[in-house]
Specification:
430 residues; protoporphyrinogen ix oxidase, domain 3; 20 strands; 7-stranded mixed beta sheet; FAD/NAD(P)-binding domain; alpha/beta
Amino acid sequence: MKKLSNIGIIGGGITGLVLGYYFSKNGYKPVIFEKNSELGGLINTKEICGKRLEKYYHHIFTGDKYTTELLEELGIHEKIDWPESSIGVFLEEKSYPFSNSLDLLKFPHLSFLSKVKSGLATIFLQHYKNWKKLKDIKASDWIKKYMGEEVWQVIWKPLFYGKFGKYYQDIAMSWFWARIHSRSAAKFSRKELLGYPRNSYQEIIDKLAGEISNKGQIFVNKAIERLIIDNDSKIRLISGGETHSFDLVVSTIAPPILASFLSDDFSDFKKQLRQINYLGNISTILILKEKLTDYYWTNILDKDIPFAGIIEHTNLVPADRYQNKHIVYISHYTSSDSNYFTVDKKELIEKYLISLEKINPRINSILEDVIIFKEAYAQPVITSDYFYKIPEIQTPIKNLYQLSMAQIFPEDRGVNNVIREAKNLANFIS
């Protein structure tokens, strides 16, 4: 590819930062435009109980090769702790351990035959390689066929509904394969270790931003309003009445948002971008005097509880880092126009407390504070026809590329996947 003099990047989340970092390493002077006042996107942090903490929970898996390689390059890999994780499920007003095969065998809500079928099917997926053969199959159909109706109804239907809402029956089997396959055999054969940066993900953000700023520029509070293609194939980004011209631009934002920047001259491309549906996420952080649960991660199988997961951060990381307070995330995927997403903080807390009392009747006496974050474009909806909707990374517009969660199929999120694809794209363009 012809050497370019300047590169613009729309979005200062983890994708934009990693792209900027690798472009800088390859000799370019990237310019990043971030609409918010802080960088990081979904790994952005806030000071809570005297320490930086991610607004949306994050951790590192032992198999996250690209994350660990990047951390080594940045010189902070030794600042990652690897505590032991624990997983539970909540069903019919009781929590059960669910970290390994023995926990599965002891789980009282499945028959022995269902447990065997579930275990064998999981082992198969962990070792199966050709995900493309699964791309047109619905996960609900596959699970019912190979794990059984009981496993679908008790375990996976509630989890798929909690993750994808009304789309739960139509999710691609390839997506489910990616979730199981990426965990290898850890979940049901041995204790799982998860990595967490001692100084939060903020140190990763700061390191990347520092490396980029040595050669390029980073603008915050700089929302893009329009994207214009010049006759000489230069791309102009309009922000706050200012025009910035680039040889090449990479968008890291959700495809439907990118569509809103383009003129009707690109109507077919805009239509393709808008085919990608998203769900929002409500991340509610509870500050507690005592533990809420006994597990780091609790999957909610109770259909009357609106949120899908409880991630008790201080059951992974010591509470003494946070002034001996206990930090809990409630993760709730829902459409951005749902009642849960649109209500005010007080009403949302009241709704959640009804459910939290089932999990821990002491919740009202141990609750000290609640902090809520919302993101409208948190989860692409990976239906069984999704493979045919994925927007190409190299767009039909000359010198315009895009890379977001929508392009990481069959995965749909995860810092490791983003780093892999961003590094590949930066090297391809270079």
